[in-house]
Amino acid sequence: MATVPLLSDEDAPAESRAIFDEIRAARKTDFVNNFWRALAHDPALLRATWDRLSQVMAPGALDPLVKELIYVAVSTVNGCSYCVHSHTAAARARGMSPEQHAELLAVIGMASQTNALATALQVPTDPRFKED
Amino acid sequence: MATVPLLSDEDAPAESRAIFDEIRAARKTDFVNNFWRALAHDPALLRATWDRLSQVMAPGALDPLVKELIYVAVSTVNGCSYCVHSHTAAARARGMSPEQHAELLAVIGMASQTNALATALQVPTDPRFKED
Amino acid sequence: MATVPLLSDEDAPAESRAIFDEIRAARKTDFVNNFWRALAHDPALLRATWDRLSQVMAPGALDPLVKELIYVAVSTVNGCSYCVHSHTAAARARGMSPEQHAELLAVIGMASQTNALATALQVPTDPRFKED
Amino acid sequence: MATVPLLSDEDAPAESRAIFDEIRAARKTDFVNNFWRALAHDPALLRATWDRLSQVMAPGALDPLVKELIYVAVSTVNGCSYCVHSHTAAARARGMSPEQHAELLAVIGMASQTNALATALQVPTDPRFKED
Amino acid sequence: MATVPLLSDEDAPAESRAIFDEIRAARKTDFVNNFWRALAHDPALLRATWDRLSQVMAPGALDPLVKELIYVAVSTVNGCSYCVHSHTAAARARGMSPEQHAELLAVIGMASQTNALATALQVPTDPRFKED
Amino acid sequence: MATVPLLSDEDAPAESRAIFDEIRAARKTDFVNNFWRALAHDPALLRATWDRLSQVMAPGALDPLVKELIYVAVSTVNGCSYCVHSHTAAARARGMSPEQHAELLAVIGMASQTNALATALQVPTDPRFKED
Description:
Radius of gyration of chain A: 18 Å
Order of helices and strands of chain A: HHHHHH
Oligomer: homohexamer
CATH class of the largest domain in chain A: Mainly Alpha
Structural class of chain A: mainly alpha
C-alpha cells in the first residue's frame, strides 16, 4: 500500500539496517515501525530524519509528553493518518492520560474552528501582537 | 482589510458589547482584540465562540501554557497568520520562555517534515498503533 | 508584491487583452481585477481559467449565490487571502445578506472543528455512508 | 482503526448515552454514527459538539441543504475522509440531486485551482475588495 | 468506498465512454483508472478535466517527468492519497529512478519543514523577493 | 511583523553569526534573508536547517532548478507566502524562464483541482498503483 516496498532487516541496505538497530536500542524494543522501513531505501534520508527527530524530541525546555502532544496536533492538521496513529500511541507511551487526550482533542478542534473564522474574516493582526 | 468592518464598542450590538465586557473582565485588561470585533456582527457566533474558548482553554488535565503551545501549532499548520500572532503572544503572556518557543518551533518543523514524508510514501499504519 | 508584474491593458499580450475585454463584457464593468492581470503573462492559462470559471459558476442545478458561498468556503480552508476577499465581495454582489454571511462563517467554523476531531480520532467510516 | 475505542451504548458513560438518545430523537433513526461513538469518551466534548452542530445546521438564512454542501466543501479541502463520506450522505438525505452534486464538485475543483494560482502568484488584493 | 459508484464502460453515459476511449488511445493501454470512472457521472466535468490535463501535462518548457514530480509534490501536501499513488506510478512510468524519487521526497520534506517554520515565525518577505 | 525580532549580525549569537557567514560564502552574496535572521535566536535550529537544506538542494539525481520548482509547488500548497516569494526568486536565479514558470503554475493549479476532485469523490486507489 506504500509507494515503495517496506524493507525488512534482510532487504534493507547495511547502513539502514544499522539505523534500525539504533532505533531498537534507543526505544528499548525490537519493533521498528513502518515509517523507518519505508525510508530505508535512502540511508541518507533515514539517517538525517532519525538523527534530527532524536534531537528534537529529547527532553529540554519542554518535556517529551508535551512534544508528543504538539506532534499529534500538527499531524492532525496536516491530515497524516499514519502520524496521528503513531504519535497518539507515542503520547500514550509517555503517559498521556485519557483526560489529557480529551483536552488535546478539544484544543485542536477549537483552534481549527477559530483559525477558519479568522481566515474567513481576514482579521488584521492587532499591532500589539507584533513583535518586530 | 477584514471582510467585515471591525466593530467598536459604540457600533457593536448590545449583546456583543456585553461579551466585550466579559472578555475584559476575564482577561483583566481594557483591550479587546480584532478577532472579537470582527465576530461581533453575529452575537450568537461571538457568544458560542467565546464561551467555548473559555472552557477549552481553562486549566485542566493540561496546563494553560501547554494548551497555548498546541494552539500555536494548529494555527501554524492551518496557515492562520492572525492566530499565530495572537496565540504566540498569549503563550508568552502565560510564561513561554524563548527556549520553549524554540523547541515548539523545532517540533512543528519536524512534524511537518515527517508528515509530508509519511504521506508521500503512503506508509500503512502498523497494526500495533491501532486502538480499535 | 505578486511574484510576476500585474499587466495593464497596455502591457498585456493582445490575446490576454482580448480576454480582459470579455471579462469586462461579461461582468458589465470596466474593472479587471488583479488575478487576471497576474495570469495575463500566459494567455493559454488565462483563457483556460476564465472559460472554465465562466462555465462552472453559471446558473445551473445550484444557483450562483450558492456557488459563491461554496467558493468562499473552499478559499478559506485553502488559506487563500486574495480569494477570500474577492469571492466574499462576489457573494455580496450576488445578494449575500449579513445573516447569510454569518451562517456561512458558522458552518465553515463548525466543519473545520469536526474535521479536525474526526481526523485526530481517525474515526472509521460507517459502512452505510459508503456508496460504492 | 480509531485512536480510541468506539463506544457502544453499553460502554458509554451515562451522560454520553443520553446524548446518543438525543441524536436518535433529532434524526428519527436508531443509528448513531461512529463520530459520536468516538467522542463519547468525553461527555463534555460530545455535548458541546452536538449542541453547537444542531444550532449551526438548523434552518436559518441558509437552508439546510446549502449548509451541507458547504460542509462537504470544507471537509474536502481539510482532507477529512470520514466527513466527506458522512456529509455527502447527509446532503443526499436532504435532497441533493446528482446534478447538484456534480456542480458542487466542479466548484470545489475550480476554487482549489484558482486558490493555488492566486497563492503561487501572490496576487495582492484589489483595494475594492477590502471592506474595512 | 467512493461517494459515487465507479462506472464501468457499460454503465457510463455514451459521452463519457467516448472519453474513456480517448484516454485508452492517448495512453496506449486498455486500462482506465478509477478517477475517470468516478468523474464519468458528469460528462462535462470529465471532458473539461481530461482535456485540460492533457494540455497541461504535455511536453513543453518543462519535460513530462518534471511535471509528474511537481504533481506528486502538490498531491502530497494536499493529502490526496489517491493522487500520490497514481502520480508516483505515472512518474515511474516516465522514468523516475529510485534516486530521483528519494530526492523528490527529501525536497518535499525539507520544504514542508521550512514552510512551517516561516509561518510559525511569520517572517516578513524581504523586499528584494518582491517582483511587483 | 515576525513573532520574534529579526537579528542583525550585531545582535545574533556568535554561533548564528558564523552561520550567516557560511550562507554568504555559499551563495556568494552579502545578503542574508529574513528567514535565517528569524531562526538565529536558536543556533541549533539554524544550524540543523541550513546544513540539511544545503544537502537536500545540492545537485544530485535531480538538478537544482527542478528542486526549486518542487519547492515552490510545496510552498504554494502549504500557503507559505514567504516561501513562495523566496523560492520563486531562487528558481529565477537558477534560470527558470517565464515559460517554465507558467507551466509550473499550470501544473500546480491542475493538480490542486484533481486532488480536490479525488478527495471529494473518495476515489479508491486502483490496485495496480499500489507498490507494496
